[in-house]
Write a structure and sequence with these properties.
alpha/beta, globular, 268 residues, 6 helices, Purple Acid Phosphatase, chain A, domain 2, 5-stranded mixed beta sheet, 11 strands
């Protein structure tokens, strides 16, 4: 688990984290609609001084000869996918809005196929000048309050694996993250859904029990399983009869009003 310690400044007593992952650029199911939606999120993050992102893996499709989606079915080759990532995320990186990147199973399958020296996620991290975190990250987000005070949110992020087709299976997989470490927010990728939920939990703080909120969410996806009418479906999602998914990502709002306790809201 890679640990990150970051300090950010709020606007109107809050900070936003918008995790972006399972983009799968290079897949035929990353459509013009997918690009439009992704660019909308990037523009929103750039327009808000208190908004940040974390790259959740499967940024690139990276199909190999042993993948369910074969490389000759890719829209563009692996090198072109990498160049796209540089062009797409450079503005966020230059504005210091990307906290880090973890690799997904699609980058992993390319690494396994051709050798560990080809790690596209690490290459993206080096090229953008952002932390490469391996397969998971624990972010301590310190929000600067008036004076020297800070409020820290603990966020555990992982690309994940498995999950199943049904939402109940995905929720079970997501909730299992709490078995790994204590955090305020848990974010998991891979499952191509969002499904945010919260719960209350009693925790010892300075010798007494305090009720606190814990939030969970899947980080969404930018695959468009539903081609326009009258166009033949050729993609992996259609072949496997996956239901169309809501293309996009969750927006996590971390409250930091010094007069109130921690509060977390997730919108989709």
């Amino acid at each position: 688990m890679y640990q990150l310690n970051v300090t950010v400044k709020p606007v109107e007593n809050c900070v936003y984290l918008v995790p972006l992952g399972d983009i799968h650029y290079g897949s035929w199911e990353f459509t013009e609609y997918s690009q439009e939606k992704l660019q909308g999120y990037i523009n929103w993050i750039m327009a808000h001084d208190n908004a940040y992102t974390f790259l959740m893996g499967d940024i690139l499709n990276c199909s190999t000869i042993t993948s369910p989606g074969k490389p000759y079915q890719e829209k563009v080759d692996s090198s072109s996918q990498f160049i796209w990532a540089m062009n797409t995320f450079s503005p966020l990186a230059e504005a210091n809005k990307i906290l880090g990147i973890i690799k997904g199973n699609h980058e992993e399958q390319l690494e396994k196929s051709v050798g560990s020296k080809l790690n596209r996620s690490k290459e993206i991290a080096v090229a953008l000048g952002i932390p490469y975190c391996g397969v998971d990250a624990y972010v301590m987000m310190n929000i600067q309050l008036p004076g020297t005070a800070k409020r820290t949110y603990y966020i555990y992020l992982a690309h994940g694996s498995g999950g199943g087709r049904k939402r109940g299976s995905k929720i079970n997989r997501l909730s299992d993250m709490e078995l790994i470490c204590d955090a305020d927010v848990y974010v998991c990728g891979h499952m191509h859904d969002v499904l945010p939920y919260r719960k209350d939990k009693w925790s010892p703080v300075k010798g007494r029990l305090v009720r606190r909120k814990v939030a969970f969410t899947i980080s969404g996806s930018f695959l468009d399983y539903a081609p326009p009418p009258n166009e033949p479906a050729e993609g992996y999602g259609a072949q496997k009869m996956y239901e169309p998914i809501c293309v996009g990502a969750p927006r996590i709002r971390l409250e930091c009003d010094p007069k109130r306790q921690k509060d977390i809201h997730i919108s989709i």
